[in-house]
Amino acid sequence: MPIIEVDGLRKAYGNRTVVDGVSFTVGEGEIFGILGPNGAGKTTTVECVAGLRVPDAGTVRVAGLDPRTDRDEVRQILGMQLQESELQAKLTVREALELYSAFYRRPADWRPLAERLGLTAHLRSRFASLSGGQKQRLFIALALVGSPRLVVLDELTTGLDPRGRRDTWALIEEVRASGVTVLLVTHFMEEAQHLCDRVAVIDAGRVAAMDTPAGLVSGAASPTVISFTPSEPVGRGELEALPGAVSVRERDGRLTVDGTDETVDAVISLLARRGITARRLRIADATLDDAFLDLTGRTRSRARASTPAAAERGEG
Ligand SMILES: Nc1ncnc2c1ncn2[C@@H]1O[C@H](COP(=O)(O)OP(=O)(O)OP(=O)(O)O)[C@@H](O)[C@H]1O
Q: Which of 64, 270, 296, 310 could link 315 by a cystine bridge, Cβ 3.0 to 4.6 Å?
């Protein structure tokens, strides 16, 4: 039996529907990602899973329980780290960990958890004095302190530096290795690609796609990107007409073609027939970023120009 079953979930604020028929299931032990642009309805969806919001329609089950009517039971099973959570300013880290432990029937020993999250040196610090990264790590600890079967993490690594982010990913992998299911809301494609077994892309309140990260990338309209500087001019129209080509861009004499493996073969044949040399030839798989932009219908070129991956591909 899946640990999370969401079917036809709908939620409106006033007359504005922000979750519009979302369905997905998560198997026990999975790391399941919810990815989507700002305001897509991700937080509202996971808050309904956690029983913090009442759906207008549809059903939610957590380990077969209804989070609304079986609230106490679900609270014992599900740990939640909320985006933008707050604690009382004067509460110390230690007090927060002890307080949260007391909510649960089978709390974990919070000390190793605090150690693992780099909080041991801050146990006496008051919440208000913690840095953004320290607060974030405390919320992760509080989500895990009840030994949950399922942990819901919303914007897990927002506010962490790259090192803190990597450490947190390693922690999440350990958590999963211990059998805990993870429902993860994220903005970071790299995070989804690194951690998630499956991802639901939510756009404007609906599931735009659901697959493994690799499946989403290979299902993108243009899973391969080829870029090169031709030794002699090549017409963009000619490249656009090649099999599988989705788009062609030119910048400072450098051409970038989004397409498929078939497009790559066709570009190389075309250049060979003409005796044109492809200088600094680069062929790259599209990333989850590209798949996400395809799925959420934004212009690929605008976004790609601003991603680090674009620079690596020599597009900048
Ligand atoms: N309590 C509320 N009352 C009214 N509108 C709300 C409320 N909570 C969220 N919204 C609106 O509903 C929409 C979906 O919000 P939600 O937080 O679920 O999206 P999200 O995908 O998590 O976004 P983000 O990535 O920006 O956190 C947004 O437009 C948001 O402004």
A: 310
Cα(235)–Cα(240) distance, integer angstroms: 9
Q: Confirm if 4 and 61 have CB atoms less than 8 A apart.
A: yes
Task: Give the ligand 1 atom nearest the CA of 83.
Answer: 27
Q: Which atom of ligand 1 is nearest to the CA of 43?
A: 22
H helix runs in the chain, sequence order: 42-49, 71-77, 93-101, 110-116, 132-144, 162-177, 189-195, 213-218, 236-240, 261-274, 288-295, 300-304, 308-312
Span 214-242, pLDDT tens digits: 888 877 777 888 999 999 999 899 999 99
Task: Indicate if the pLDDT at residue 313 is higher than 50.
Answer: no
Which residue is closest in CA terms to ligand 1's atom 31?
39
For the stretch 244-257, pLDDT in tens is 998 899 999 999 99
- CB of 18 closer than 6 A to ligand 1? yes
Tell me the CA–centroid distance for residue 44 and ligand 1, in Å: 6
pLDDT of 84 reads 66
* Confidence grade of residue 303 (pLDDT, cut at 50, 70, 90): very low
Sort 123 into a burial class: Cβ within 10 Å, 0-12 / 13-18 / 19+: middle
Examine the predicted complex and report whether its ipTM is higher than 0.85.
Answer: yes
Ligand 1 centre to CA of 9 (Å) is: 15
